[in-house]
Specification:
alpha/beta; RNA-binding; Rossmann fold; four-stranded antiparallel sheet; four-stranded parallel sheet; single chain; 14 strands; Four Helix Bundle (Hemerythrin (Met), subunit A)
Length: 484
Amino acid sequence: MTIQIHDTLRGEKTELVPLVPGQLGIYVCGPTTYDFAHVGNARPYTAFDAVVRYLRFSGFTVKHARNFTDVDDKIIRRAHERNEDPFALSARYIDEFESDMASLGIQRPDVAPKVSEHLPEIIALITELVATDKAYARHGDVYFRVRAFNGYGKLSHRNVDDLKSGARVEVDDTKDDPLDFALWKAAKPGEPFWESPWGAGRPGWHIECSAMSAKYLGQPFDVHAGGKDLVFPHHENEIAQSEAAHGKEFARYWIHNGFVTLSSDGVGDDAKISKSKGTLLTIRAILERFDGEALRALLLSTHYRNPLAFSEQALLDADRRVESVYTTLEAAGRKFGARAESADEKVMAQFCEAMNDDFNTAEALGRLAAPLSRLGELAAKKSPKSPTSEEEREARSLLAAVRKATGVLGLWDRDPAARLLERRTTVAARLGLDPATVETAIAERTAARASRDFARADAVRAAWLAKGVELMDTPAGTTWRILL
RNA sequence: GGCGCCGUCGCCAAGUGGUAAGGCAACGGUCUGCAAAACCGUCAUUCCCCGGUUCGAAUCCGGGCGGCGCCUCCA
């Protein structure tokens, strides 16, 4: 069983063969921390989290590195605007980022290196490039000589001459060639800086990923991941400077996720959540109204390379699905969960087949629908069979498989009953609703039903339904849920 | 101008040569005092359009229409 991975460099799917059998090093380009992360940021980290989880599930020992770019023009600019220390600002948004990631069920990477803590490595790398004339210093800046690296453009499939003719780069006399990019930038007054052989300054944008990935994963390493927008110039430049310096391949496989686009689906409240067109929507804003697991489910509902149209309606649909699957798992767990059974092999094979094909989470999720619905069917059956009957064995085996597979995706991996209760109470709190008042109403309604005063009972239910609370009668009593 | 992506049921979405997964919604049914939930069933002879290749195409090729991205600091 092999894993096929769509490699941007080769431009096609290819078998993932690790450098060292059984081990995999993966580097995911992390955020520049100058503000809250937005939905677009949520995508790569969620998608590649699922990839890492699956690779581990498949038996690989994975070393996952994801950097924080905490030294950057945007951070400095934002800090100046707010009269704040750039490092303090950056550190604050790193914390916020970690919190968002946790809400999305994203596991922490094994290493999360920061640029500010790797100046020696960065300076050493630039020094090497300068020494071999692959880079040159100019007025305290250092530039990479793009023409000196003949593989330039191989990742983004562009040729250097096309780039030059179409370049919207202003003519700059300090550079030998307009395509050359900065490895090191001389410090301007008031900016943070480090001492270097070229004077006081700070790293350019691309160099940190080259230096830190080499330090933690070696050269070459297996998989380099990031958003599609980073292919050019960021990743192209990483390859150029790394391969020029080390004289060997940089990363062996490149995977890139597609964009999240904001779409107005015309379903009323869309504007409220996506603000005006072009405004970036933060993860935090979404979490104020929705569950992180719903957002994760939405992000994994399409293949990671395809574009994903984000909308309030899409999120509502995802949320409904999250709840309904938990409902099925709860019912099945209550009826069959007492005894353990090994996971159904067919279901696992189906799941793995989808994931092995370039981590197709959408396909994998689709394949779990059948066992899930079978599980619901078995859980709904009235006549209790003996606990050792064939059907019960089947149910336990399906339940084990579904829980195992969804767990790999980082979805439906909590205790269903606790999860449903938690969802209900947090949503209630968000809406300013006291669960106790609902319970009181339920008691009142139960009394009305007992005395067969159905008009009264229906009135109570209708009143709460108008407030978005649905009362549901079950053999075990009346429960309720909140309609989003 | 250069490079690239996308267009599959009302909505989301998988499928990249072998005769259209799945989810949501909708509709019918079981259950229920009635509902809801849950469960059962129905729901694309067809994949933006036109041509071509092929025994066979949503899938490959050519053209068109529509949407989108990148081309120096944006995941």
